[in-house]
Amino acid sequence: MKILVVRSTVTTHGPGTQSLTIAKKMREDGHELMFATSGGSLVEHIEKDEFTVKIIPELSPYKHQLIPVLRCIKKLRVVIKEFQPDIIHGHNAAATLLTYIAGILCGKNIPSCTSVRG
Q1: pLDDT tens-digit profile of 39-62?
Q2: What separation in angstroms does the CA of 83 have from each of 59, 65, 71?
Q3: Which has the closest alpha carbon to 33: 9, 79, 1?
């Protein structure tokens, strides 16, 4: 299964680390994964573990205004068209919702789930 992992920001502390931990286990189970994020200190570790990471600055939790949100959806559409995920695994509600909307605008109803922590 192809899984698109989405998180606003990935950091080396707190809940951000769990997206990488979960992704490693899913890859061990035979799934193909790609990350989409605005960036953060964990990106280096994600790439070191040989995951593809697409940086979308507009996924940042500080860019929830209309124009950045529309740009974010447009960029997520490109990622979805390129990767063709079977499922979206979001690690916060906003990132999951924006990616789901991008999928709909690609003509795909991609199943989505959000891991909730904190």
Answers
A1: 999 999 999 999 999 999 999 989
A2: 18, 27, 19
A3: 1
